[in-house]
Amino acid sequence: MKITLETAFEMIQELAQTFDANKHAYLGSDYSEAQARKDFIDKFFIALGWDVNHDIQKNPYEQEVKIEPPVPVGATQRHADYAFRLAPEFNNVRFFVEAKKPAGAIATKENYFQVIRYSWNSQTPLAVLTDFHQFQVLDCRYKPDPDTALNRAVAKYYYTEYTDREKFAEIYWLFSHEAVTTGSLVKRAAELHKPRGKAVQRGLFPGAYKPVDESFLEELDEFRGDLARGFKTIDPDLNSETLTELAQRTLDRLVFLRFLEDKGIEIQRFVDKFGDRGTVWEDFIATCRRLDGIYNGIVFKQHSILDSPTFNVDDAIFGEICERLASVNTPYDFNSIPLHILGSIYERFLGKVIVATAKRVRVEEKPEVRKAGGVYYTPEYISRYIVANTVGKLIAGRTPADIATMRFADIACGSGSFLLCIYDLLLQYHGIYYNALPKSEKARAVKRNDCIEREGTLYLSLRKKREILLNNIYGVDIDTQAVEVAQLSLYLRLLKEETTVSTHQYLLDFQHVAQIKKLLPDLSKNIVYGNSLISRDILDGKLFPSDEERKLNPMNFEDAFPEVMKRGGFDAIVGNPPYVRIQGFPRNEIDYLTRRYHSATGNCDLYVSFVERSYELLRPEGRFGYILPNKFLRTDYGEGLRGLLASRKALIELIDFGASQVFDATTYTCLLFLSKRRNETFRFAKTEAKPEALAAAKFVTKNTESLGKDAWVFSDDATLSLLKKLTIGTKRLLDLPADMSRGSSTGNDEIFVVERTANIEKEILRTPVFATDFNRYTFSPTTQWRVIFPYEVNKDGARRFSEQEVKKRFPMAYAYLKSKQAELKKRKQYAEWFSFSAPRNLSLHDRAQIAVPLLADRGLFALIPKETRGKLCPMASGGFTITFGGECPLRPDYVLGLLNSRLLFWKLQQMSNIFRGGWITCTKQYFGELPIAIPNQPRHDEMVRLVEQMMTAKQKLTAAKTNKDKTYYENKCASLDRQIDCIVYDLYGLTEDEIKLVEGTGGHA
Asked: What's 868's DSSP letter?
């Protein structure tokens, strides 16, 4: 409900006057917190526009303000008093308010630490501590530390200042519903001081600025390494895989124990008291064994090594970990950390394993994670959007009985972030459904043990939440630790709203019902360990070493999920599949994938096969939603997947984020939605990767008949019309004829770089060419360096000299290379100093006429001077050269003018991959498709003349010394650019509207 500043000010003035008139009573020791909340604090936030009493938002699952009941005397506070959210993101807390009684000091170390702890763990930057008498705003971005907590006040107001309109406006424009809706808290937090540099190094900045996820992940990694080293010291025979499993299970148990403590499900503080009866480890194991009888599930399940009476650990190491995690010492409040944040922590945690040698134990990234550049955890707004548009669409309007028959999955589930989103959506839907029932139906829901009634509102019972989890949620991952964490995450969500009373009541109600008498269901048949892409048929007729087969872990879905597959498959599959090129896989896996999946073509990525496999596993009316790289829309390797989806008419929605990044990496993504049912149309949108942009995305409807195996270009009608027009009466660049050849993009050649003055035979030296050595119409490779290049080049290609030939013919070069032998052997990619590969198409490079960089944000193409040809090394930092065939009717100068024009760069933008900053890839598959106009002779010669003038002007601009000369030649180049563009527009027959279309999106300097 919207309340203006003026209205709010009037309401608060009245409250302040009431307090002032009776302040001696309100400041008395017998005036309680509960009374202060009812009389003043509730009304204060109502005046700020919040529905505190739920007069409007009746549904308990869709309320922006959550209020915790006052803590009974002697009990321990486990929640902030008020949590404020914004619709429709009811799981996302924007800020907390902690209420106190007016009597006594409010600004105490304990109070500040308590509030900061709630907020920091929830990643909410600002919080309020108030007794109405005072209103204090705290900075909660810093890791909670009792010793520095009192330094975190941002602003303080006394009730007498509430009647000062200017002072009250500060509060209103920060915490009112209207202000929070417009991002006031995020903006204010961004304005606050953030320490940098040495101040944030560990130990140098008390209560250092560090988000909870980064902080806890660092500690988990440290704990894991310490545990593994402790285990290995006691039992040297433990290998890397076993140590990884033991450390993971130990930490999972500790985290789950702390969750039970902070939730209040278990009254006793277990971790604080380990070591009171026996050793710390003995007390830990005894507690786990007792809790296994209550909770069930994988976390406390008896482990043959950990729970063995003969397994010993270094109690000092384990004791220190428990001490740091104990509730009295730790900054972490496991009740406040949102589950999606905990999931992001675990997703990154799973990207590392323990590697043990005879003498050392260390934690390091998995090879596939290192190759991919890290772990990419899906932001919550993305996973919620995907789940809402798959699972949400399928369950809309259905009854709980209907939904009970449905099956939803993530077949590369990782830590379970998408499964949590599915489960959360299902719980919310069921809660809303039951509360909307007529009174008589509500009574039956309570009687069936589906719901529990509290103050006229129905809440899902623990039994019902267990039932939904077992019926509806399925997952697969090839990492056993991921499977364990996914189950742990779902258990935490199951118990999220439970209390000591509700869990104990459940145990009493169902103690005689064998299959449900424990609090946690057995998820071993729901979340399984296996390879989703490779079935057991890969083993047919082949002999695999046992360790290789275990690593491969082939799985048949019919064996893992027999009931699901009998009914035709899953109703929805969602997720974020792995982004890994299959070329690094073992040969047998590559052969299997390319034989098994139509989508696995060329130098493909694993995610394309995940799309195809997921589509196969859907029921006839099933839906699919993935976030994945958008490269498949245009690249050669995406041809198989594009063709498959087009032939099945599977596409229902596609959202392309273009160069806007979801992940903090050089990965550009899209959201792909499919259905098993054939579709005549689909929706397309291009938007930024931001929550508000995604929510407001504007879609256009397109016909699926327009899709095929060729690159998918989604443009407006005017753009599509112009793209088609450019193909009329033109030739592909590669059909002129011309050839594009790629130089080295690995950096191998730089090992043989020597200074120009080095005493080495000139016949075996070449000038290296880097992408920075040429620019728009200019080509000037460095003369400082030369590359030892042990090849002879002829018209048939290149032949590498053998070691003996180099030694005999080029003794100085041989001596230099030999001196580098030790350095080369340190680099794993070289077995011998001379084992580098010959560059591809070397003879083409020697005859090349145009240089092309790998990435360009405009026309950056240059003519290679004739006098340098045959003297250059292939590009050492990624790039291409164009060589025209002898029968090509066009001069290279003419083609260069076209390539550097606005029009052809605009064309390149439409079909290539676009990266941040507008950079696009100029690979052969895109560049080679550019349409080249074939002109009459006068037009051809006019273009050549202008290009020659441009190259001369560029040279003079580079050589210019005075500002006057620089300005003159800059203007001359700009004029020539315009003249070239005009000729190009005329050659392709563009209209004025088409020119405006091109110049509105393209450009050059």
From this structure: G
What's the chain's length in residues?
Answer: 1005
pLDDT in tens, 863-882: 988 877 767 766 555 678 88
Residue 385 to residue 625: CA distance in whole angstroms: 9
Cβ neighbours, 10 Å, residue 918: 15
Tell whether 974 and 912 lie within a shared domain.
yes
Phi and psi angles of residue 674, each rounded to the nearest 5 degrees, phi first: -130, 160
Give 959-976 pLDDT, tens digit per residue. 899 999 999 999 999 999
Up-side HSE of residue 812: CA atoms within 13 Å toward CB?
11
* Structure tokens belonging to residue 802: 């053998």
Order across the sheet with 570-575: list the strands.
527-529, 473-477, 408-410, 570-575, 618-629, 669-675, 651-656, 681-686, 700-703
| % the chain with pLDDT above 70 | 89
Question: From start to end of 870-909, where are the E strands?
Answer: 872-873, 879-884
pLDDT at position 340 is: 84
Is the domain of 171 the same as that of 150? yes
Instruction: Supply the CATH number for residue 26's domain.
Output: 3.90.1570
Domain that holds residue 357: 212-372
CA–CA separation, 279 and 799 (whole Å): 71
859 contacts 925 by C-beta, under 8 angstroms: no
- 12, 130: one domain: yes
**665 confidence band (pLDDT: 50, 70, 90):** low
Between CA 130 and CA 865 the distance in angstroms is 75
pLDDT at position 75: 41
Q: Are residues 27 and 163 in the same domain?
A: yes
Q: Which of 207, 808, 292 is nearest to 520 (CA)?
A: 292
Reported as a single tens digit per residue, the pLDDT across 929-940 is 899 999 999 999
Mean of the per-residue pLDDT values of the chain: 87
**Residue corresponding to tokens 């029968």:** 887
N-term to C-term CA, the chain: 51
Give the type of residue at 984.
Answer: V
CA dist 527 and 515 (Å) reads: 18
Tally of structural domains, the chain? 3
Please indicate, yes or no, whether residues 129 and 276 belong to a single structural domain of this protein. Answer: no
pLDDT of residue 527: 97
Backbone angles phi, psi at 845, to 5 degrees: -60, -40
Count CB atoms within 10 A of the CB of residue 241. Answer: 14
Last residue of some domain: 144, 168, 200? 200
H/E stretch holding 365 reads strand 361-365
Q: Which of 200, 223, 256 delimits the end of a domain?
A: 200
Task: Please tell me the predicted confidence (pLDDT) of residue 625.
Answer: 98
Q: Is 938 within a domain?
A: yes
Q: Give tens-digit pLDDT for 22-59.
A: 999 999 999 999 999 999 999 999 999 999 999 999 88
Give the span between the Cα atoms of 461 and 497, in whole angstroms.
10
Note whether 671 and 686 are within 8 A (CB).
no
Query: In terms of domains, do 368 and 245 share one?
Result: yes
